[in-house]
Design goal:
It is built from 11 helices and 13 strands. It has one domain: Metal-dependent hydrolases (TIM Barrel), CATH 3.20.20. The radius of gyration is 19 Å and the shape is globular. 33% of the residues lie in helices and 17% in strands. Helix 3 runs parallel beside helix 4. The strands form 3 sheets. An 8-stranded parallel sheet has the order 2-3-4-5-6-7-8-9. A 3-stranded antiparallel sheet has the order 1-10-13, with helices on one face. The chain has 343 residues and is α/β, with parallel strands linked by helices. The structure holds (4S)-2,6-dioxohexahydropyrimidine-4-carboxylic acid and zinc ion. (4S)-2,6-dioxohexahydropyrimidine-4-carboxylic acid (DOR) binds next to loops.
């Protein structure tokens, strides 16, 4: 069996920098035409100049003849200058701005503590039609980690949308039915869904021993939420599209007493997704999810190229780890054999 799709894009990707970037970049560019590049480097990508320089470092490391396009983002801080954001958008340097609540996840210390302090930037973005990517979790220590997405919707997202309904928002890596329902109920808002959240629930993370390579943020939720995500992704609804959140950390940093959050799925994402969509009887909705809905929300044309996925009779093997100059990075294990491969 073979299916042909418009070349996919990844609307949420961590590429890191230096030796890690060099080691993992081909894992994405092999399959994807474009990706929204997350700005949570150390230090973060906060100005248009930072974004230009980071983009140049990525392009420098692209394999010969590779036409992958990195779509850059700025990391929103309480000191972000609305004029710099507007200029970066106008010149095509950036495609979005990323809001991390301070302390929500990896390298988010310079994120936003009080949304009031970034309203001038958000107002400018609404005016010029620049999308805001949101890490949708509150950081209030009294809120249970499994409830942080739902509470974020209530405390931050709904009030923000009431104040600035024209602002285009992407609720990144949605993990709950609450998130799916909210996105469905409102205008000017879409959501990315990761490969791993379509496959694992919190049992995979915790039952039978803690599995550090399944630990990510937002943390995987209970099975009913995973099913809601599969339903949304396979529905063809243009509000939902792929953002892998593929987030490499070296194995020593994952397999630790205080392991980093992040699942690295760039290598086998398309094979995993073909499996999930086939399982749901929705292979015909795969192209919308991976290749059409994202560009439509961002106001970009779909990629010109095509890819073909072929279902093999025997399992396809992917490397268990990618060796990089920054150490080995374990590839996401979906927990079932994969039969689809890119041809
Ligand atoms: O699991 C995650 N890893 N979630 C995030 O939000 C950040 C990311 C990372 O940068 O490692
Ligand atoms: Zn991320």
């Amino acid at each position: 069996m073979q299916i042909t799709l418009t070349r996919p894009d990844d609307w949420h990707l961590h590429l890191r920098d230096g030796d890690m970037l060099k080691g993992i970049l081909p894992e994405t560019t092999r399959d994807f035409g474009r990706a929204i590049i997350m700005p949570n480097l150390v230090p973060p990508v906060v100005t248009s100049l930072d974004a230009l320089q980071y983009r140049a470092r990525i392009i420098d490391l692209l394999p010969e003849g590779d036409d992958f396009i990195p779509l850059m983002t700025l990391y929103l801080t309480e000191a972000t200058d609305p004029a710099d954001v507007a200029m970066a958008a106008k010149t095509g340097t950036i495609s979005a701005v990323k809001l991390y609540p301070a302390g929500a996840t990896t390298n988010s210390d310079s994120g936003v503590k009080n949304i009031e302090n970034v309203m001038p930037v958000l107002e400018r973005m609404a005016e010029i039609g620049l999308p805001l990517c949101v890490h949708g979790e509150v950081t209030d220590p009294s809120v249970d980690i499994f409830d942080r997405e739902a509470v974020f919707i209530e405390r931050v997202l709904a009030p923000l949308r009431a104040r600035l309904p024209e602002l285009k928002i992407i609720m990144e890596h949605v993990t709950t039915r609450d998130g799916v329902d909210y996105v469905n109920s409102a205008e000017n808002i879409a959501a990315t869904i990761t490969t791993h959240h379509l496959i694992i629930n919190r049992n995979h993370l915790l039952v039978g021993g803690i599995k550090p390579h399944y630990y990510c943020l937002p943390v995987a939720k209970r099975e009913a939420h995973r099913r809601a995500l599969v339903e949304a992704a396979t529905s063809g609804n243009p509000k939902f599209f792929l953002g892998t959140d593929s987030a490499p950390h070296s194995d020593p940093n994952k397999e630790s007493a205080c392991g980093c959050a992040g699942v690295f799925s760039a290598t086998n994402t398309m094979a995993c997704l073909a499996h999930v969509f086939e399982d749901a009887g929705a292979l015909d909705a795969l192209e919308a999810f991976t290749s059409l809905n994202g560009p439509a929300f961002y106001g970009l044309p779909p990629n010109a190229g095509k890819i073909s996925l072929t279902k093999q009779d025997t399992p396809v093997t992917f490397p268990a780890k990618i060796e990089t100059g920054a150490g080995p990075v374990t590839v996401f294990d979906p927990g079932f054999p994969l039969y689809w491969s890119l041809t």
